[in-house]
């Protein structure tokens, strides 16, 4: 790759340099100027080269909900968003709760030939919250971690057993914290729920389960990961856990950083997401916690649904919004361009940090590292237009936002899997 600017993740500097890649083994051979001649030269002049991103939380819907997304369409969307790896949640139909189903996801991922799709395995069979899955068997089949995402494990005793077993296996458990006895059929955070006359989903349903699972993590020694943290109280609990040295990490979504319940348009159920958009104070607390490192990483919780499914009103519309193709431009524009965070810090929290939390191979801009790279255009400002998405899902409330930082090219394992200049993903 020739003529690009390389971001130094240590000091945030950018320097023009070429990268020589060994595509057969998917590794970076050397970085610098006047490198030996390559078989093929890719011109990346004007672009900034970054390690490809890692998303610890996506929903690619296969098997069972292929009309919303397939592993192939989701993986194409991921590489268009600059991602080299994603962790795919198991709330499919059937759920990913056996080794055979894990192998199915890995097979579909290999066929798609875009990004690395790492399956998450269910904590409980069929995500029913009644019996644990066979963690050792799921681990041998290749899961990156365990989660019942989409649902919380309601039974504290079962979760305790799960965390003891997970600690023995070394697998990270990613929790969707939602106490259903508190959340009920709530769809929005209290002030918005009142305004639009729909049932409320109070924040205590999330924080109560986070508190329980942090205590259990301390008791069992398990590695716990908090999915989509959205509350000031959750951030305080997380800070408490970290101060006690617990093995805990947490993610926040772009929508919980950039939107609050005050942003919701009553006519647009694309704002319906779980956990719901919270108060402005909660949003600010999550942002502060992400900036100071209490919240470790970004996750999109990319959750595609069709427009028809979403067009049935607040009570019945499914929760979720897509985000994998727009997360970097959104956060580059709203955090880096505004001087809240350095580019290198944002990139680390979208690549190395999630990879470490789930023991995934990490890419990096140095000789010998995995050649998972993305080249982004930090100059061109463009409106978010869902009809340009590769994802089948168009359900985003960010339509029309003007952002810069668009990924132009993505390489995974030394192979070019996305090139916007050729207007299509090559698989
Ligand atoms: O909004 C959400 N949608 N939150 C979740 O936890 C699950 C996800 C989905 O699967 O659609």
TrEMBL record:
Q: Where is the active site?
A: 301
Q: Where does Zn(2+) 2 bind?
A: 149, 176, 228
Pfam families according to UniProt: DHOase
Q: What reactions does this protein catalyze?
A: (S)-dihydroorotate + H2O = N-carbamoyl-L-aspartate + H(+)
Per UniProt, substrate binds at 59-61, 91, 274, 305, 319-320
Give the Enzyme Commission number: 3.5.2.3
Q: Where does Zn(2+) 1 bind?
A: 57, 59, 149, 301
UniProt KW RNA-binding keyword: no
Question: Could you tell me which residue ranges the Dihydroorotase catalytic domain spans?
Answer: 48-230
> Which Gene Ontology molecular function entries are recorded, alphabetically?
allantoinase activity; dihydroorotase activity; zinc ion binding
- Keyword check for Membrane: no
Per its UniProt record, the required cofactor names are: Zn(2+)
Give any Gene Ontology cellular component. cytoplasm
Part of which pathway?
Pyrimidine metabolism; UMP biosynthesis via de novo pathway; (S)-dihydroorotate from bicarbonate: step 3/3
According to the record, the signal peptide region is: none
Which keywords, in A-to-Z order, does the entry hold? Hydrolase, Metal-binding, Pyrimidine biosynthesis, Zinc
Q: Entry's NCBIfam families?
A: pyrC_multi
Task of the protein: Catalyzes the reversible cyclization of carbamoyl aspartate to dihydroorotate.
Q: Which HAMAP family match?
A: PyrC_classI_B
What's the family? Belongs to the metallo-dependent hydrolases superfamily. DHOase family. Class I DHOase subfamily.
Q: Identify this protein by name.
A: Dihydroorotase
Species name: Alicyclobacillus tolerans
The gene designation is pyrC
């Amino acid at each position: 790759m020739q003529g690009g600017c390389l971001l130094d993740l240590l000091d945030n500097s950018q320097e023009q340099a070429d990268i020589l890649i060994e595509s057969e083994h998917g590794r970076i051979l050397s970085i610098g100027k006047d490198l030996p001649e390559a078989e093929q030269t890719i011109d990346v002049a004007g672009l900034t080269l970054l390690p490809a991103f890692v998303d610890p939380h996506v929903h690619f819907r296969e098997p069972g909900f292929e009309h919303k997304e397939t592993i192939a369409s989701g993986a194409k969307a991921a590489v268009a968003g600059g991602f080299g790896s994603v962790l795919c949640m198991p709330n499919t139909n059937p759920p990913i709760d056996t080794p055979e189903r894990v192998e199915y996801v890995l097979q579909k991922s290999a066929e798609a030939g875009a990004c690395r799709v790492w399956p998450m395995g269910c904590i409980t069979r069929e995500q029913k919250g009644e019996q644990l899955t066979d963690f050792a068997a799921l681990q041998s089949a290749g899961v990156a971690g365990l989660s019942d995402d989409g649902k919380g494990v309601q039974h504290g005793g079962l979760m305790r057993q799960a965390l003891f077993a997970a600690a023995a296996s070394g697998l990270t458990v990613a929790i969707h914290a939602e106490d259903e006895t508190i959340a009920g059929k709530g769809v929005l955070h209290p002030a918005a729920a009142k305004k639009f006359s729909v049932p409320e989903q109070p924040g205590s349903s999330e924080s109560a389960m986070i508190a329980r699972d942090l205590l259990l993590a301390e008791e069992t020694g398990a590695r716990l990961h908090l999915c989509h943290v959205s509350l000031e109280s959750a951030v305080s609990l997380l800070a408490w856990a970290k101060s006690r040295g617990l093995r805990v990490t947490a993610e926040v979504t772009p929508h919980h950083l950039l939107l609050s319940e005050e942003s919701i348009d009553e006519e647009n159920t694309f704002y319906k997401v779980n956990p719901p958009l919270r108060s402005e104070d909660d949003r600010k607390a999550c942002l502060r916690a992400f900036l100071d490192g209490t919240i470790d990483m970004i996750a999109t919780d990319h959750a595609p649904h069709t427009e028809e499914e979403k067009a049935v009103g607040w009570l019945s519309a499914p929760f979720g919004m897509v985000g994998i193709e727009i997360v970097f431009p959104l956060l580059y524009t709203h955090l880096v361009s505004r001087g809240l965070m350095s580019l290198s810090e944002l990139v680390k929290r979208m690549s190395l940090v999630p990879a470490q939390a789930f023991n995934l191979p990490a890419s990096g801009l140095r000789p010998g590292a995995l050649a998972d790279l993305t080249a982004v255009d930090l100059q061109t400002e463009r409106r978010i237009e869902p009809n340009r998405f590769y994802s089948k899902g168009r359900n985003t409330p960010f339509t029309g936002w003007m952002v810069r930082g668009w990924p132009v090219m993505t390489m995974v394992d030394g192979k070019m899997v996305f090139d916007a200049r050729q207007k299509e993903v090559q698989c």
